[in-house]
Amino acid sequence: MAYTLSEIYPDDKRGQRKLRALLEGEGITLDGNLDYTCGLFDEDYQLVATGSTFGCTLRCFAVDHRHQGEGLLNQVVSHLMEHQTERGILRQFVYTKCQSAKFFQNLGFYEIARVEGTLSFLENRRGGFSSFCKKLEQDRRPGKSGAIVMNANPFTLGHLSLVERAAKECDTVHLFVLSEEQSLVPFDVRWKLVTEGVAHLSNVICHPSGPYMISSATFPSYFLKDEQAVITGHAKLDLTLFGSIAQALGVSVRYVGEEPRSLVTGLYNQIMAQELPKMGIQCIEVPRFQAEGQVISASTVRQAIHDGRLEEIRNQLPQTTWDFFHSPQAQPVIDAICRTAQVIHY
C-alpha cells in the first residue's frame, strides 16, 4: 500500500482529530509541548503512523496496531531526523519506553540512561554524555565539593542564600544553570544574573547544564500513567544522569531549596533525598530564605514584574538582578513576562 507523509499543522482540525484518535488508540496522550508533527496517511487519508519533535527531542510516536510490522515507524523517525537536521539541530534525543529502546538503537541512537520499567533516554551521538562528563573533570577540585542545580528565572536573594550556604560549607561549589530555553527569562540573561550575582564567591564554579539536566518541559509525560509517575520518572532519570556528573566532579553533597508551595518540586526533593544517598551523595534541603517574613521565590518576582510592582520586591533581589531589570536590556524580558497570562508555576 502507498502512504503519504505530510506535516500535521496545529490549526488542521481534521488532522488533529485523527492524531489524537491514533495516539489514544495506542495508549498515548498528546504531548502539550510539540513544535512539529508529521503523519503517514493511507490512500483513504487515514492516519496510520505519527511522530513529533520539541526542541532537540523526538517524541509522541505511534503506529496503528493494524499496520505494525510494516516499517512505518522507521519512515517517520528518519523523516523527523532529517527535519531536525534541516533546522540545524544536529544533536537529537529520544525518550521512549524501555522495550522500544532497541528500535532506536538500530536507527543510530545510543542509550544514555534508563529508569528500569519506565523509560530509556537516548541520543544520536556516540559518547556524547561521556564526553560531557570528561570535560567537566577539568573543573574537579580537591576537598569537599557540593553541587546546586537551578533555573534562576530570575536569580533572587533566595537563590543567592542557597549558594552562599553551600559555599560556606564546601571547598568548591559547582553551580549548574539550566540551559534550555523554556523560561520567561532567557538563558543568556539567567546566566548573566547568576554569574554576576555569585562573582564574590571565589569557590563557586558556574556551568551551563547542557542537555543532560532535564527540564519539565522536555521530559515526556505522554506515555506515563499519571502525574506522580511523571514526576517520579523525571526525577529518577535526572538523578541517574546527575550521579555520573557528580562522579566526574567529585561531588559528595547536593543542596536543594525547600519548596513548601509546589507539589511537584516537593515530591522531587523527596525522591532526591531517597536516591542520592544510594550514590554516595548527601542531599541537604535548605529552608527557603525570607525577607520581612515573606518567602522569596522567582514566581513572586515574575508576578511583581507582570503587575508593574517591581519596586515592592526590592528586598528580594540581589543588586545585580535589580540593576538589570532597571536597564534598557531588560525591556524585552519584561515585555515577555507582561504578555504571559500565568507566570506562577506549580
Q: What does the model show?
A:
- This protein has 346 residues and is an alpha/beta fold.
- The protein has 2 domains: 87 residues, Aminopeptidase (3-Layer(aba) Sandwich), CATH 3.40.630.30; 202 residues, Rossmann fold (3-Layer(aba) Sandwich), CATH 3.40.50.
- It has 11 helices and 14 strands.
- The strands form 3 sheets. It has a 7-stranded mixed beta sheet with strand order 1-2-3-4-5-7-6, with helices on both faces. A 5-stranded parallel beta sheet has the order 10-9-8-11-12, with helices on both faces. Strands 13-14 form a two-stranded antiparallel sheet.
- Helix 2 links the parallel strand 4 and strand 5.
- The chain is globular.
- The N and C termini lie far apart (48 Å).
- 37% of the residues are buried.
